[in-house]
TrEMBL record:
Residues 19-91 form the Flagellar motor switch protein FliN-like C-terminal domain. InterPro entries: FliN-like_C (IPR001543), FliN_T3SS_HrcQb (IPR001172), SpoA-like_sf (IPR036429). Belongs to the FliN/MopA/SpaO family. GO terms for biological process: bacterial-type flagellum-dependent cell motility; chemotaxis. GO terms for cellular component: bacterial-type flagellum basal body. One of its GO terms (molecular function) is cytoskeletal motor activity. This is Flagellar motor switch protein FliN-like C-terminal domain-containing protein. It comes from Roseinatronobacter ekhonensis.
């Protein structure tokens, strides 16, 4: 096989079979903080940095700079107890983004 030939893959004509194999990093944004530099310089271990969101506000999920969903933080149970997860409440139309 030369460098210009790709292996055959099953696809639905849109390339989703190939895209389905690409890992993505999703960023979950829980809020922003905008302290003044002097406030930032006073931060120490155990300091609390206030965010612009309340505890029950939805979090936002991004791939790169694209908002793909919103959801609610939840603590996982069972074998993953103690870890955080996101229960999705709103989804963007991902097909339109591709």
């Amino acid at each position: 096989m030369d460098d210009t030939t790709l292996p055959a893959t099953e696809t639905d004509g849109t390339g989703h079979a190939i895209l389905g194999q690409v890992p993505l990093e999703i960023i979950v944004s829980v809020g922003f903080a905008r302290p003044m530099v002097k406030e930032l310089m006073r931060l120490r271990r155990d300091s609390v940095l206030p965010l612009d969101r309340r505890i029950d506000d939805p979090v936002e999920l991004y791939v790169g700079d694209k908002l793909i969903a919103r959801g609610e933080l939840q603590e996982l149970e069972g074998e993953q107890a103690g870890y955080l997860g996101v229960k999705l409440t709103e989804l963007a139309n991902l097909d339109e983004m591709l």
